[in-house]
């Protein structure tokens, strides 16, 4: 073996040894790779609505479902699967107020089947429910539905020949006959009894006025003019109603 080959072989051995020791030094400086497993969040099954349920509608089994809900976000009012029969017990219950799709169902928003006082639950706190027998002529052609807002007009005299005035403005319609739901596919309801929501003092005036004259309901638009002034008092002063261009 000649001298040049021996020299090349020596250089190669020295280079290999240097690379080996260099690699060992780097391994000592590199931190070991840690595999972090994601923390699994604890969940609880919560009963939610599978569709928009309007006030006054009855719930069916298909209207609710169990879903996993983060345990830390569960409120005490939520209905959980701690009671396995909670979903079945809500069947035929009535919605006290609007429940939107995906919203957890709480006891405060439903009236369970068999419970009395549906109308009492729909009423706003401190308000009273009064009922008026109407005809198409005295109820905007029968187009008044639960949830609408109306004005109540009073005409003195049973014959209806007196001057009409506005007694109450912006009154909420609670029901038409026995229909409470605000979500109806009918364009109008041919009901004969309309239940309204009034303050206690207004309810007294309303009841006494039924025997001394005629009451009519005028449907209000759901849109308010930009320049309309908000009023807190429903009862207005005597206002002449314009009829066919005459006051």
Mind explaining what this structure looks like?
- This protein has 247 residues and is an alpha+beta fold.
- Among the domains are: 43-112, Antifreeze-like/N-acetylneuraminic acid synthase C-terminal domain (Type Iii Antifreeze Protein Isoform Hplc 12, Alpha-Beta Complex); 118-182 and 189-219.
- The protein contains four helices and nine strands, in the order αββαββαββββαβ.
- It has helices spanning 3-29, 86-89, 118-122, 200-209, and strands spanning 43-49, 64-70, 94-95, 110-111, 128-133, 149-156, 164-176, 193-198, 213-219.
- The strands form three sheets. Strands 5-8-7-6-9 form a five-stranded antiparallel β-sheet. The chain has a two-stranded antiparallel sheet with strand order 1-2. The chain has a two-stranded antiparallel ribbon with strand order 3-4.
- A hairpin with a 7-residue loop joins strand 6 and strand 7.
- The longest helix has 27 residues, at 3-29.
- The radius of gyration is 37 Å and the shape is elongated.
- The model is unreliable at 235-247 (pLDDT under 50).
- Residues 44-111 form the SAF domain.
- The chain crosses the membrane at residues 6-24.
- Pfam families: RcpC, SAF.
- Keywords: Membrane, Transmembrane, Transmembrane helix.
- This is Flp pilus assembly protein CpaB.
């Amino acid at each position: 073996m000649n001298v040049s080959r021996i020299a090349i072989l020596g250089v190669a051995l020295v280079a290999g040894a240097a690379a080996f020791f260099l690699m060992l030094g780097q391994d000592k400086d590199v931190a070991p790779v840690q595999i972090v497993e994601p923390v699994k969040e604890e969940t609880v099954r919560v009963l939610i609505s599978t569709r928009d349920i309007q006030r006054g509608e009855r719930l069916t089994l298909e209207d609710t479902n169990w879903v996993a809900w983060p345990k830390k976000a569960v409120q005490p009012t939520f209905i959980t699967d701690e009671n396995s029969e909670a979903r079945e017990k809500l069947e035929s219950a009535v919605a006290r107020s609007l429940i939107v799709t995906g919203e957890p169902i709480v006891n405060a928003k439903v009236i369970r089947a068999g419970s009395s006082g549906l109308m009492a639950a729909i009423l706003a706190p401190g308000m009273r429910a009064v009922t008026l027998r109407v005809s198409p002529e005295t109820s905007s052609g029968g187009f008044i539905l639960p949830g609408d807002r109306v004005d109540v007009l009073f005409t003195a005299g049973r014959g209806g020949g007196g001057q009409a005035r506005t007694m109450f403005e912006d009154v909420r319609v609670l029901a038409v006959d026995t229909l409470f739901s605000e979500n109806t596919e009918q364009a109008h309801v041919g009901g004969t009894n309309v239940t309204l929501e009034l303050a206690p003092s207004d309810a007294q005036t309303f009841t006494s006025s039924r025997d001394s004259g005629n009451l009519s309901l005028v449907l209000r638009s759901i849109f308010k003019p930009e320049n309309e002034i908000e009023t807190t008092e429903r009862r207005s002063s005597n206002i002449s109603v314009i009829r066919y261009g005459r006051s």
